[in-house]
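Researcher: We plan to redesign the surface later, but first we want a full-length starting point. Tokens attached.
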């Protein structure tokens, strides 16, 4: 089993579907908040809450992904190698 096949890949169709679903849901929420028969401050509160919910979802997804990658075998193997490459890299060294 090669290392490239060990990491699951998403298809481009899945990516497109996820982007479209996000855009439709965000637009639907914004339109719903805009057309509600509420005062301006109430609309602002709902819009702010919706945006906070979206950013919280992105943060949670990143934390879960990072935690999963840290626990995976490939992540544990690649981390020391990456740290060694960063330690050996000198951007001020003259290239030959």
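Model: Full-length starting sequence:
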């Amino acid at each position: 089993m090669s290392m490239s096949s060990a990491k699951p890949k998403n298809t481009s169709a899945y990516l497109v579907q996820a982007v479209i679903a996000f855009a439709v849901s965000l637009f639907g929420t914004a339109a719903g908040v805009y057309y509600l028969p509420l005062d301006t401050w109430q609309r602002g509160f709902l819009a702010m809450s919706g945006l906070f919910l979206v950013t919280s979802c992105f943060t949670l997804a990143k934390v879960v992904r990072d935690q999963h990658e840290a626990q995976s075998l490939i992540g544990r193997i690649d981390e020391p190698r990456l740290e060694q490459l960063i330690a050996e890299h000198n951007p001020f060294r003259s290239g030959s």
